Amino acid sequence: MLGLLKNPMVVTAEINVNLVALTVIGLISRLWGLSYPRAVVFDEVYYGQFVSLYMKRIFFVDDSGPPFGHMLLALGGYLGGFDGNFLWNRIGAEYSMNVPVWSLRLLPALAGALCVPLVYQILVELQFSHCAALGAALLILLENSLLTQSRFMLLESILIFFILLAVLSYLKFHNLQRHSSFSGSWWFWLLLTGVACSCAVGVKYMGLFTYMLLLSIAGLHFWHMIGDQNLSNVSLMCHFLARGLALVVVPVAMYLAFFYVHLTLLYRSGPHDQIMTSAFQASLEGGLARITQGQPLEVAYGSQITLRNVLGKPMQCWLHSHTNTYPIRYENGRGSSHQQQVTCYPFKDVNNWWIVKDPGMQQLVVSNPPRPVRHGHIVQLVHGITTRYLNTHDVAAPLSPHSQEVSCYIDYNISMPAQNLWRVEIVNRESDTDVWKTILSEVRFVHMNTSAVLKASGFIGASLPEWGYRQLEVVGEKLSKGYHQSMVWNVEEHRYGKSQEQKEREVELHSPTQMDISKNLSFMAKFTELQWKILTLKNEDTEHKYSSSALDWITMDTNIAYWLHPTSGAQIHLLGNVVIWASANVAALVYVCLSLWYLIRRRRKIYDIPEDAWQLWVSAGGICVGGWAVNYLPFFLMEKTLFLYHYLPALTFQILLIPIVLQHLGNHLCRSLLLKSMFSALIVAWFSSVYLVYRTFSPVTYGEPSLSVTELKDLRWKDSWNILIQKQ
After folding, report:
1. Does residue 99 sit in helix, strand or coil?
2. Which of 12, 90, 98, 99 has the greatest CB tally within 10 Å of its CB?
3. Rounded distance, CA 145 to CA 574, Å?
4. Distances from the Cα of 63 to the Cαs of 67, 275, 415, 469, 720, in angstroms?
5. What keywords sit in the KW lines (predicted)?
């Protein structure tokens, strides 16, 4: 033992100086002057609101994607001690002293900086030279649009980081496959691939494109493994299960974990929870939970209830009535029943209360013990304040003439008998004997006489005229037999009625509930509802001053003004390096043309390049051209407002292709020493122009120094670019 101490312990390490230098330069370029400008820059006004809500633990719904990216931005705020108190109401607003600007922008900047060494390693793993890998990393470093996007509280740089990490991890895993399957490093890189894919999807759904690409490539590689006679059936099954675990199970589990953390953090009621179901709202602290705390769980005969329409579009509303009647004749000459109006009212009101009555009894109070209402039971719904019965009949509805009018019955003694019996159908029941439950049960009311279903009118956005106080129409839907959320209602507020006398009952209806029964949704129920809302809830897409089409992106015919100093004229724009964008397009075109040429020649048994070079060319194209295509082409199918920054993930893959094509041309098409020398000189000249353009546009990338009007006009290389010129 003592003999071991005679000699010193020596640790040797192999350091890739290129990698270290690129990482340091990337960090400097992204972190330098990160707090400038100390003002809201473009979409920081959007993401900042969510960061504030995280700090205050207030629930929100963002229809742009999953919560992981927002949580990372909020992490920056948390590390900086942000209390969430800032009004994110306009671009250019000066940040108050309590806003840790550097901390909020730190994680996107770090992600953008680390993309530089990641690109270097991807080219090395693709078996290209270190010179080509260095070139790719420098192109990412000098791309002005990527630099701009990574210096602010935005998500694209984080998305691109996880995309590149997923690609690198898969390549390392695949290269280890040949000689060290199921080793520790093999498992590490395979699992990291799944983790990175999940993180990319969790930041923005655009990450799904690269995830699908890698799954396809993994499937293709496994297909080739099936043809390997050296692998036993057991070994193949183990490989299949390992890939399924790492590339499917782990990403799904992590995706669920993002939502679990999101829902755990945001436990307070806020402005967004009203679009959720009553059950979801009741699970949040404050808001509806404060109102419904202590409500009876089971609806019984004599229960006093409010009924909320499940659809919640165009706005949430409750079944409502008031003393006013339908006009004898509408403006178009059609007649009505002139009975009491029934509407869907978008505000809480005492006229939203109804009493569930047993048709065979006169009492309007809950018996002791209560008699619960079950699926299939027949009830009458009595309006609490006016004591008139919910009714529908064969009279055309005011706005929907093909549907039946719904009213509260008034006996005019004109041979129009009451038709006020309704069958309760619990849509989400587990059995036909289920009890109607507060908040949890989603019910339809089917009219016994006509089989019409009580429905908030499908006349989306339309409201009744002045005589109906602009409230929403309620109809009896005769035609539809299918399930639609506009036909489904849930009990939101509920109490057991105790007063048989009308005057006492009115006082009771105005008073809060008191009984204490609580019910929380499971995580999976909340996840399913929130996920569905994210996928289906779309804000109205409107034309934005800086919105663009996918065709504009390839040639960079558009830009986005991110920030403008109110006095000096200093400004920040999302503008790319023109030389890099043009070179990326040329590289893609050259790759496609050369690939077609090689394929045709190979079909004729003419092999222009060695087989290993061909395999390298194809695999690189699968990653780079495939990555560009899957991250770009889907935007032609999307009906949403598009911006130039949506192209950045596709651009990143296209930039990777530039050194790949250059190395291929230098190795296989420049045969003589003279041609190789000329080609090298051209590359040096081209790279110098890349740096020159980067330096030229740096003032509008970093926002400083401020430029004169003449200098700003000189930067307008295209007429379609919107460079801001302040009037003197």
Report:
1. coil
2. 99
3. 5
4. 10, 12, 52, 32, 31
5. Endoplasmic reticulum, Glycosyltransferase, Membrane, Repeat, Transferase, Transmembrane, Transmembrane helix
Pair 315, 346: CB distance under 8 Å: yes
Q: What angle (nearest 5°) sits at the alpha carbon of residue 331, between those of residues 329 and 335?
A: 25
pLDDT of residue 102: 96
- Is residue 203 scored above 80 in pLDDT? yes
Q: How many CA atoms lie within 13 A of 98 on its CB side?
A: 8
DSSP one-letter code for 249? I
Q: What is the mean pLDDT of the segment spanning 370-392?
A: 92
> How would you classify the pairing of strands 472-477 and 453-456?
antiparallel
CATH of segment(s) 296-512: 2.80.10.50
User: What are the sequence ranges of the domains in the chain?
Assistant: 31-261+576-669, 296-512
- Identify the band that residue 479 occupies on the pLDDT scale cut at 50, 70 and 90: low
DSSP state of 546: T
Distance of alpha carbon 224 from alpha carbon 237, whole angstroms: 14
Rounded to whole angstroms, how far apart are CA atoms 541 and 445? 35
User: Is the separation of the CB atoms in 194 and 250 below 8 Å?
Assistant: yes
Phi and psi of 357, rounded to 5°? -115, 140
Which residues, in sequence order, are bridge partners of residue 329? 335
Percent of the chain with pLDDT over 90: 61
Residue given tokens 């339309």 in the structure block: 462
Measured over the CA atoms of residue 404, residue 410, residue 413 and residue 418, the dihedral's sign is positive
pLDDT of the residue at 271: 77
Give ∠ CA 404-407-413 in degrees, rounded to 5: 105
User: What is the average per-residue pLDDT within 650-659?
Assistant: 96
Query: Cβ contacts of residue 423 below 8 Å, gap of 6+?
Result: 376, 377, 378, 379, 445, 446, 448
Residue 3 confidence class, pLDDT cut points 50, 70, 90: low
**Helix ranges (DSSP H) in 637-728:** 648-668, 673-702, 709-714
Instruction: For residue range 668-693, list pLDDT tens digits in order.
Output: 888 888 888 999 999 999 999 999 99
User: CA-to-CA distance for 500 and 504, rounded, in angstroms?
Assistant: 8
Task: Tell me how far apart the alpha carbons of residues 356 and 340 are, in angstroms, rounded to a whole number.
Answer: 18
Find the mean pLDDT for residues 338-357.
91
Do 133 and 177 form a contact (C-beta atoms < 8 A)?
A: no
Handedness of CA 702, 703, 708, 714 (dihedral sign): positive
Structure tokens at 231: 């692998």
- Decide: helix, strand or coil at residue 514: coil
Using alpha carbons, select from 626, 628, 630 the residue that is nearest to residue 650: 628
| Euclidean distance between CA atoms 548 and 559, whole angstroms | 9
Q: Nearest Cα to 352, choosing from 233, 588, 510, 504?
A: 510
Average pLDDT over residues 467-488: 82
Helices (H) and strands (E) in the chain, counts: 21, 14
pLDDT digits (tens, 9 = 90+) for 569-624: 889 999 999 999 999 999 999 999 999 999 999 999 999 889 999 999 999 999 99
> Residue 539 CB: number of other CB atoms within 10 A?
9
Q: Is the CB of residue 76 less than 8 Å from the CB of residue 107?
A: yes
Contacts of 50 (CB under 8 A, 6+ apart): 60, 62, 70, 73, 74
